[in-house]
Model the fold of this input.
Amino acid sequence: MDDPVVYLNGEFLPLNQARVSVLDRGFLFGDGVYEVIPIYGGRPLRLDEHLRRLEDSLRSIRMDSPLSRAEWAALIGRLIEGPGDQSVYLQVTRGAGPKRDHAIPKETKPTVFAMCSPILPVPVVGVSAITLDDIRWRWCNIKAITLLPNVLLRQEAVDRGCAEAILVREGYVTEGTASNVFAVIDGVIVTPPKGGELLPGITRDLVLELACAAGLPAQERRIALEQFANAEEIWITSSTREVLPVVELDGRPVGLGVPGRVWERVAALYQDFKQRLRTEAAV
Ligand code: PDD
Done:
């Protein structure tokens, strides 16, 4: 695993041999998009949804998908290593231009990169989070590789001993630096609606779907910070962190300061879904 095989521009090669140009616009401008797709039992979770989001991100930055869905699926199939839980990272940048120029060159060849990494077990005791001002741009629905605000905000959380920073724009919670957020308020599962303020998370959609199918009350609506801070439960969701309970927010316990009952239900539904994916042909 020290030198795993990765995919770069049509070739499968050892990671330490993968090279891109210093004129690549991903390197110079962060001009590109990405996806992270969890794999359980060798099967990608919600592959179509991830690929559709990749296509949406590409379209938003005026690019076409360099590969068809079938080609992406075949590429991912070749990178998966054994049955263990892992995630596939896909990145498409606009490629190298003739010189450094902000405007998009007429003809560039996209750089397509993919690698596979193990997914580490998710802690079940719950994590601490802080709230921070959402300093990002207004197209957060695009899964752009331009992640400097997310990096700096996450580091501020880490510096304060926390696992995530939950971002707040004009008094309303948007999402985490690399996760979506949920709260349980008056017994109802609530998550902010999709739009330019947050990434339309695949895990978010799945959690909503599983909760609704199980008859749990759930709503997509804006959450004011004050309501959020007094929620019975808070969770963050992502492809690599699944459904993770936040038990402390800004130094104060969330609810009883332990993972809540609704989280237990939803996390069990999520684990069931993963188990079915491992064992059944199509979920
Ligand atoms: N990030 N919001 C942001 C800003 C994210 O970066 C992510 C995921 C999510 C959750 O989306 P999904 O459920 O589709 O993973 C929400 C990935 C895991 C990352 O950047 O590594």
